[in-house]
Amino acid sequence: MTNALLQKPIPLPAEADRPYWDALKEHRLVLYRCSACGWYSQRPKMFCQECLGEDFEWSEVSGKGRIYGFTRVHQTWVAAFREETPYVLVSVALDEQPSLVLVTNLLGEFDFDDLDIDLPVIADFEPRGDEMLLQFRLQGDNDVQS
Predict the structure, then answer these.
(1) Percentage helix, strand, coil, to 5, in the chain?
(2) Pairing of strands 29-34, 56-61
(3) Domain extents for the chain?
């Protein structure tokens, strides 16, 4: 297998969401937020789905949330991830707005059978090329953002 096939994909941020990616490099999580009503969105929007406002700003959130759902992944079609299977994907409901659910990997040491809905998690960060990826770990699992 060639080295290119063994390299994990690197995100290619668009200019519109560059503040999100720049914040991740600083181990911070920022989300798009409606200036009128405070509704958060992961991606830039033309108008707020809550109040139809059109003014937004990037706003930092705590990086804390709760497990909304999870699954163990046993297969991958990307060669660079084969050595990491099985891994756990989690849907995380953010503390600031539980209706906003982010899907990432769950990092750290844990027993899959002990995972449950509503367990507290905290943001963690994985370097990938020149970018940083958002991941989560169980809160209390060193309880520190990496």
Answers:
(1) 15, 40, 45
(2) antiparallel
(3) 16-61, 62-146
- Name 104's bridge partners: 90
Residue 41, φ and ψ in degrees, nearest 5: -140, 145
Tens-level pLDDT at each residue, the chain (146 residues)? 556 557 888 899 999 999 999 999 999 999 999 999 999 998 889 999 999 999 999 999 999 999 999 999 999 888 888 888 899 999 999 999 999 999 999 999 999 999 999 999 999 999 999 999 999 999 986 544 43
* 0.90 exceeded by pTM: no
According to CATH, what is the number of the domain 62-146? 2.40.50
Q: Transcribe 104-144 into DSSP letters.
A: EEEESS--GGG--TT-EEEEEEEEETTEEEEEEEETTSS-S
Residues 121 and 143: their CA atoms lie apart, in Å, by 9
